[in-house]
Specification:
Layout (H helix, E strand, L loop, with lengths): L8 H7 L2 H17 L4 E5 L2 E5 L3 E7 L13 E5 L21 E5 L7 H32 L1
Antiparallel strand pairs: 1-2, 2-3, 3-4, 4-5
Helix pairs in contact: 2-3
């Protein structure tokens, strides 16, 4: 159970403390600038970003899952993080199999160029997965 229920991303942003708001707005702009045709939607009360499928999300710590705050700052997550080539070991994996993330507690910690690299790679993965899915569907219909 979550601590709130928002109707829009803007409503969620209005709830955030100032430090989380600044980081969320900064990352939101980065994401929207890096993902052509990006769709932003509220899911689990936080913004998710997609083209063909969900690519990434921004999860401020103030939007808790359950009644307990489990981290500080904001979390930038990649829904297919396990497919990213994370040679720098930048992303946290925890015990998750697919979703990888990075937590930030200060806007100065956010390396925009590095984050863009991860976003661009995630967009390529999203496009490839969508193409492969489409190719499989076409092949299936050709066999009929």
């Amino acid at each position: 159970m979550q601590n709130a229920s928002y109707k829009s991303v803007d409503e969620m942003l209005g709830f955030l403390p100032d430090d989380e708001l600044k980081m969320t707005i900064f990352l939101r702009k980065l994401i929207l600038d890096c993902i052509p045709g990006c769709q932003e939607k509220l899911s689990y009360n936080v913004p998710y970003y997609k083209r063909h499928a969900n690519i990434c999300f921004i999860w401020p710590a103030s939007v808790t899952w359950g009644n307990t705050k489990t981290y500080d700052g904001i979390r930038l997550g990649f829904t297919k993080g396990f497919l990213l080539s994370d040679e720098l070991n930048f992303l946290d994996k925890g015990d998750r199999k697919q979703v990888y993330w990075k937590d930030f507690t200060d806007i100065k910690q956010i390396d925009a160029d590095l984050i863009k690299t991860y976003i661009f790679e995630a967009v390529v993965i999203d496009s490839e997965l969508a193409k492969n899915k489409k190719d499989k569907t076409v092949n299936l219909f050709n066999k009929l």
